Structure formats: structure tokens, C-alpha cells
Amino acid sequence: MEKLFFVTRSEENYIKTIFHLGGNSSALIATNAIAEQMETKPSSVTDMAKKLAEKGLVHYKKYQGISLTDIGIKTALSIIRKHRLWEVFLVKKLDFTWDEVHEVAEQLEHIKSEKLIDKIDELLDFPKFDPHGDPIPSKDGKFMERDKQLLSDVELNTEGVCVGVKDTSAAFLKFLDKNKIALGNTIKVLEKEDFDQSLHIEMEGKALHISHQIASNLYIKKND
Amino acid sequence: MEKLFFVTRSEENYIKTIFHLGGNSSALIATNAIAEQMETKPSSVTDMAKKLAEKGLVHYKKYQGISLTDIGIKTALSIIRKHRLWEVFLVKKLDFTWDEVHEVAEQLEHIKSEKLIDKIDELLDFPKFDPHGDPIPSKDGKFMERDKQLLSDVELNTEGVCVGVKDTSAAFLKFLDKNKIALGNTIKVLEKEDFDQSLHIEMEGKALHISHQIASNLYIKKND
DNA sequence: ACAAATTTTTAGATTTGTCTAAATTTTAAT
DNA sequence: ATTAAAATTTAGACAAATCTAAAAATTTGT
Asked: Which pLDDT score is estimated for A1?
């Protein structure tokens, strides 16, 4: 039986970042990569790595890198579950727009109450995806990775549905709103410009010309 | 124009405690009283008093005591507003019992987002009282103090409605649940035992015998 | 009013999370 | 293979929030 440690807010943020950079794989994540992602210094990451290793949340070998232990992964999934459920709550129940939810969810994800998040889950009727199309882990840490591709990667004439965004920045999301691009919209790729990789697409019946930068941040699920 | 400081979680907890001990009056609160209430040491209170004074949230005179400034009072009311609105949310929307809400609300009250709490307020249809009968300050810091008295203080044959509790501990609230005593219930005081101050009452039509300890923690509003 | 008791503050230490600057290790290049 | 560059760690410092123990101020009792 592993000893139970209290996990601080700062530790939770590190765990979350390590998960996002490395997934559930045992690949070693570089100190620098974590520091850059968190906008902190590599030396701070080293300090925290020792603390997390002490608590059994990460594997850490000096100069090699950091990866999550099984407990670390479980912890990360629990935080991500909370973050994404709160995002759904904010959008569905409180009329937040999808570009507004991240900052508040960053705070709410640290609230410690199993009952609270399970009740929120129930209130929302157990959603499987958050407002950006990212999957919500279940209580026991499982989640469905949706069959999706970047719009920039699919062949000409592919038809499908917009199911998610890669870039979740407020700037990008507001751009999508302004251009009436929303999850659930039908998409067909009509033409690809060789010169700048921009795409001519049909979205919900209307013709649209989008840059490569936009296409490489939109996920679509191809029609069967 | 007063300088705007970030108020930390710990500072918010001190502000809240000072408000609860001293209200909006300018009465000076003793270092010891605050320390006892917060289960901390007087020396820690002194340290924090200096910090809060620096930020313009309290008046502090060495050896004299501490009281909130106008900004401090505004800050306190904002925290209390958030705490009580979250309590209502937990009970009304997530089926928490009134003895379960305090601990979670203690965390939620520190979430920083004006839009969030205003939307929660709206979702709950702008409640005026929390699950324990305590008034919820409005956005601009006003709240109605209800016309209420301790059940132990009213005269014989008084009739009224149970509108609040003084002791909000889980133990007391669970006791009330077990004995089917709830806010909104009608109450009539039938007889007072001189020996131990216990009361014979009629609650929702049924006879009940309650100790002085219970009666001195229940608020009732007398019928007109 | 003065000594004793109480309250409050100060001084110095501790923990957490961070930083800078210097030292060390690893990686890459020729 | 040796050196230069890059990444990483260590050492020492700092701010926030707390504590203990000692000093100072206030209050109380006679």
C-alpha cells in the first residue's frame, strides 16, 4: 500500500504539464520542455522533480528526464477530468463562451471534493467531451480518444464533422466564432492551394477559404 | 484612487475572520481573538496585521487591535457572498445536505472570477439567504439582516417560523435533520422548564422537547 | 500605585516554491 | 576523440506564511 501524500496546487500543475507533454507513456520528458511550457526556470523544475519523486508521483533520473508513475498518471487524469467537466459546466449551465472557460477552470480544477465533481458530472449528464472536443476521463481514468485528424492532413474531397481544436487560445477560439466555425459543423475539403497550403472548404453548405494555420488547428472526424 | 493589491488566499481568510468577529463596526478586534478563531498563533496574526495594513485592508495600531477599513469590509462581503452563494448552489443544484456544504464552500469562495459568481447568482435566481438562514450580500455589498430571535429568548406561546441556525457545525445540523427540524418549519413555544431551561415546543403540529443548548442555537422569526 | 498576570510584539527559525549564477553532465560537431 | 554548445543540476538567496521563545506593553488586583 503506497503512502498517501497531500498533493499541493503547484505539484498538481507540474503533474498536469508532464502528462500533457508525455501522455501516459513512459517516455522521459526533458526538464527544459517542462520549464518552457510552465513559463518557469529549469532549476525550479529540478527542485520539483525531486519532491514529486519523493512522493512517488514521478520517475526521475538525474540528467535523464521525468515521467509519471502509475499514481502520477491517475493524479493527472483526475485533474484533467475536473478541468474539463468544469469547462462543460461553465458553457452549458452558465453561458460562458468556449474562449472564456480555460482561466476559470484552471482554478476550479484544484478544488478537492470527490463528491462535488461527481455531482457536477451527473448534473451535466456525464459528458464525454469538453467544449474544445477533448475527451473527459471517467472516474476510473478511462477515456475515449476520438478518431480524428487535423483538417490540414486529410485528402481532397474528404467530408466530415468538426470535432475539436488543437489550439485552445482565446484568440483562435474567438476567430472561429467570428467566422461561424463551430464543433459539429459539417466540412468538405474542396481544394488545396499548393502555394500556401490554404484550403478551400465547404462548411455547413457555405464556401470558405482558410489558411494552413487554421486548418492545422482544427480536428475533423471523417464521415464513414 | 487606492492602489490595487492582489489579495492572497491566506489574507482573505484573515479578512473574513475579522469581519465575523467585528462586523462592519470600527471596534478593534484583539490579536488573541483572531488567533483563537483561526487556530493559529497570536504572533502570526501580528505578522498578517502588518501586511493587511500595508495593503490598506485593515486599521492596525500596535497593542490596540485590528479593524477593517472600508476596502476591507468590501473585500469581506465579497468573500462571504461567494461562500454563501456556493452553499446554496451545492444544496439546490447538487443535492448536498446542509451539513456538507461548509468545507467545500471554504474552497470555492476563493475562486477569482466576477463573472462566475454573478452567473451562479443568476442560476440560483438571486437567493437572499443561504442554507443556514444567513443573508447573502448583494454585488454592491448590501444585505438584509432578517428580523430574528434565538428560540431560547422568546416568550411563552410565541409562534413563528424557523429561519436560521447559530451553530453551523455538522454535528448540530445532523442532529436537526435526525429530529426533523428544518428551516421553514412552524414553531410554537408551549412551556419552559425552569430547572434546565429546556423547552416544550410544537413543531409542524408535533410536540417536541428540546434542551436549552438546542434552543439557543435556533433562530425564529415571530409571526406578525 | 505597583507588582503580577495577561496580551501582544519582536527576533529568529522553518517550509514551500521560486529565482540567479555557477558548476556539472550530456550531446553535438568537426 | 576532443572540444564546443546545450541542457541540467547545485548552491545560495528570497518572499510568503507560519512557528517558538523571549521581550515589551498593557491590564488587573489589591
From this structure: 56
DSSP state for residue A55 in the 8-state scheme:
T
Encode pLDDT of A127-150 as tens digits. 999 999 999 999 999 988 888 999
For residue B58, the SS3 value is strand
Q: Provide, in whole angstroms, the distance separating residue B37's CA from nucleotide D13's C1'.
A: 35
**Which of B90, B112, B119 is opposite residue A107, by nearest beta carbon?**
B112
CA distance A123 to chain B (A): 7
High-pLDDT (> 90) share of chain A, %: 92
Q: In this predicted structure, what is the pLDDT of residue A92?
A: 98
Tell me how far apart the alpha carbons of residues A140 and B158 are, in angstroms, rounded to a whole number. 55
Dig out the grid coordinates for A124 from the structure: 451535466
CA of B63 to C1' of D6 (A): 57
Q: Which of A95, A108, A119 sits opposite B111 (nearest CB)?
A: A108
**Predicted local confidence at residue A185, as pLDDT:** 97
Q: How far is CA A201 from the centre of its chain?
A: 26
pLDDT, residue B91, reads: 98
Neighbours of A131 (CB within 10 A): 25
Tell me the C-alpha distance between B174 and B180, whole Å: 10
Residues belonging to chain A with any Cβ–Cβ distance to chain B shorter than 8 Å = 90, 93-96, 100, 103-104, 107-108, 111-113, 115-116, 119-120, 123
**Amino acid identity for residue B57 in this structure:** L
Distance of CA B6 to the CA centre of its chain: 25
- Alpha carbon distance B75, A138 (integer Å): 38
Domains of chain B (ranges, CATH numbers) = 9-68 (1.10.10.10), 78-144 (1.10.10.10), 149-222 (2.30.30.90)
For the record, the C-alpha cell of B52 comes out as 493587511
Question: What is the average per-residue pLDDT within B31-55?
Answer: 96
The C-alpha atoms of residue A17 and residue B45 are separated, in whole angstroms, by: 36
Could you tell me which of A124, A129, A121, A167 has the C-alpha nearest to residue A145?
A129
Per-residue burial over B77-94, b if 16 or more Cβ lie within 10 Å, else e, is bbbbbbbbbbbbbbbeeb
Is it the case that residue B1 has pLDDT exceeding 70?
Answer: no
Q: Using 50, 70 and 90 to split pLDDT, how confident is the model at A25?
A: confident
The Cα–Cα gap between B31 and B18 comes to 10
